[in-house]
Structure formats: C-alpha cells, structure tokens
Amino acid sequence: MQPFSVFVRWRPLPPDASDPAELTRNYEPHPSNGRISIALPRQSPQARPWKSSHAFTHIFEASDTSRAVFDAVVAPTLPRVLTGGTGTVFAYGHSGSGKSHTIIGYDFEHREQYGLCLAAAQHLLDALHALNANNPDSSPSSSSALGLGLRMYELRGNVAFDLLNDRSKCHIREGGDGKTHIRGQTEVLEHGRVRVRPIATKACWSVEEFLAHLGGGLARRATGSSTVHDLSSRTHAVLEVEIVSRALLDARAAVVERESEFVPVAKRATDVYLEESLRGLVKDAEGKYVPNPEYQVNQARIDAAEAKKAEFQGYVDDAVRKVEEVLRTASHPCLGGKLVLVDLAGSEFYHDKTIAAVPRPKPSPQEQRVGRQINTDLLALKEVIRARAARAARIPYRSSPLTMVLREHFQGTTGQGADACSRMILTVSPALGQGAATVNTLKYGSLVGGVAPGK
After folding, report:
1. d(CA 92, CA 385)
2. Which of 11, 89, 284, 293 has its CA 20 to 30 A from that of 320?
3. Which residues are annotated as a binding site?
4. How many angstroms separate the CA atoms of 248 and 243, rounded?
5. Residues 271 and 349 in one domain
6. Which of these ranges, 63-72, 131-140, 373-382, has the smallest mean pLDDT?
C-alpha cells in the first residue's frame, strides 16, 4: 500500500481555446497504482514519450463530476476525522489547471458541484447533527453541541494572511514547545496587557454559515498574473476544518486572555530583576562593573516579582489544561478531528522550446521572485512527503514556512494510518500549449506517489 495516495484530474479544454489540439496521453491501470504516459510533439524525431512510475491511485477524466472526485479522494478520510484524527488533502498543479475549482468549486447552488471543501463540510455537518440529536446533553445552544470551526489563511514566503480576519498579517514562529505557531498582530490593551491572537476560527453550525464564511475568506484571497494564467493564486491557501464545540472554543479563548494577563506581570519581573542587578553594580576606575558596596540587592523584591510571575504562569497552565480536559472528556471522540485542505500556489514552469506554445510575456523580476519562492515551497513539500513515506530519521520540516506550518497536520496522522489520510490531487490540462507544465506536474506526483515505504 502506498504511503501517500496521489490522484490526477484532467480539466476540460476551455471553450474559447485558440488551439484545440490536445496532448496524446495513455493510462495504464494496475491493481494498486497505475501509470501515465505522455507523448509530446518535439523538434527531434528521436524524442521518447515520458512515462510515470506506478504512482497514481486513480485518474479522473474531464467528464468526471466534482462529486465523483470527492467520493474517491476526500470521503475515505472523513471516518478518521470523525474519530478525532487528521486528514490532509493537497491540490497541486500549474496555474490555470483547476486547483481552486477542485478544492473550492464555483457552483455553490448545486450540491453535486460542490468543491472538496464544501462537500466535506456538508458530510461532516450531517454526521455531527446526527450525533447531537442522539446526545440529550447536546442541544443546539449547549456548550457541548458539535459543529465545525473554519480557519482560512494564505502563505506567502514567511508571512501568513488571515482570510477570516480582514487579511490581517500574521507571523510564523516556532515556539519553545517545538510547534509552529501563526500569530496575528500584537494588541496593546489597558494595564500593560498584550494580546496576540491566533488565526481566527469561525464557528459554523450549518452549511449556510459555513458557506458564508468560506465565501468571505475567498473574497480576500490574493491573486496575480503569471505567465500561464491572469488570475493565478500566487499564495498557498490553507483551509482547516475542525470539529469543535462552544466549550472548546471558549477554553481556547481563555488561554489567549490568560496569556495577555501574564505578559505585563512577566515584564515587571524582568524589570525588577534588571533594576536590582544594576543597582548592585558600579563602575570602578578602569570602567569595569564591580559589586556596589553601598547597595544591597533587594532579593525579597525580586522574589516577590518572580512569585507573581509564577502565579500568572499557573493561570496560563490551568487554561491550557482546561482545553485538554474539554478534549479528553468530550461526549464523542470526534472533537478536535481535523480536515486540512491545501490549495497550493500554481507551480511555475517557463517556456519549453521543444513544445509549440502560445507566446507569453516574460515575467517581471517581482513575478520571478514569487515564482522561485513558490517552487522552493513545493520542493520542500515533496521532500517532506518522501522522507515521511521512507520513514527517514530526519524529516526536513524546517525547509520552508509551508512545511513548518503543515508539520502539525502531518504528525497528527502518525500512528493513525497516514496512508489513508494524506492525499494529493494533481490538476492537469490536456492543452498542447501547456504540455511542459502538465508533464512537470505529473513528474512531481510520480515522485511523491511512487516512493516505497521505509522498512
């Protein structure tokens, strides 16, 4: 069994395509995973067709519906989410190949045309409503009622933008606990309190609420031009769909508040220590600091400030334990289960002289820098996936901000059947003019899906 399932979805040619010619392609099925071969018209008659490894779980043709894609790619991960596990689904492909259409979808009126995210939300909410109905303590207004929490943010280099909080700029940091945290802007409150909120979570108790928040986040997503697509997404969009309750959300909010109260107390303890330390020193004739014989360091004052700091640290620790308690004592183990969908930025592959293509303007220096960063992220992601599949001793999560952010989601599936919960769908175009980009996308998927499990 493959450690990372990879699917391929061919998009249809656009109706206004100037060149109706399509790539010559062939799919060779296999009991486990199939392979794809692509024949490209090249200037050299000796050129051979490209053929993938046995890496692809399933190939979706342009005629396959979004519902069929959901049933094969996402639906098998949801039972694990409903038992508190983590599922991760990536969409990878060159600009204009249909990644956003697959993850998000554009037809919100018809359930059969929902993208993977909305279809998953519908499925999960139906299951949660059934659980709530069977639990007498989970009335719609109770703190234990189960719903969905939606987080949406996009990554560009070392910066994240919170799409559910007016695109506020956030920073990616690794904490002392070894986890990666995305923190918003610092708010200075009264009495010296400093509050740093995490990525916003919008609670959703119905599909209508979920759709409203999803649409609002999408409206704030940045787009830009590329050499392939005029409205290409130039960032990686991460959508986290988590099973939550009001009690869990309130407990997490309390942690943020306790941390804000801790900051001025901790700063005061540091100030007191520095004040007493400096008063206890004096410069001698040579300009060196030596003990001040005229001042006795007030250790009692330092100890009192440190005791106050420890007291407020205890409040923070209690709040963190409350979150853990809510998760541990939930009426159903699904609380905290998470589905993460990642709409990766369009991979950039420039002109291939061996393929007849529509001339495109040369990318600007800014576009080239953005493209290099995107490709660096995508390379890092590939290396992490391969290292995990091969059970390498070291997983290079720190290679890029993208893999740092995804670290928790990858590790959430450890020991829970990562093969069943980590999936990628490659979106590709049959257009002859995009043949080089399509082959590069398939090469990426072949490397990711074809790696053998570690022994």
Report:
1. 13
2. 89
3. 93-100
4. 10
5. no
6. 131-140
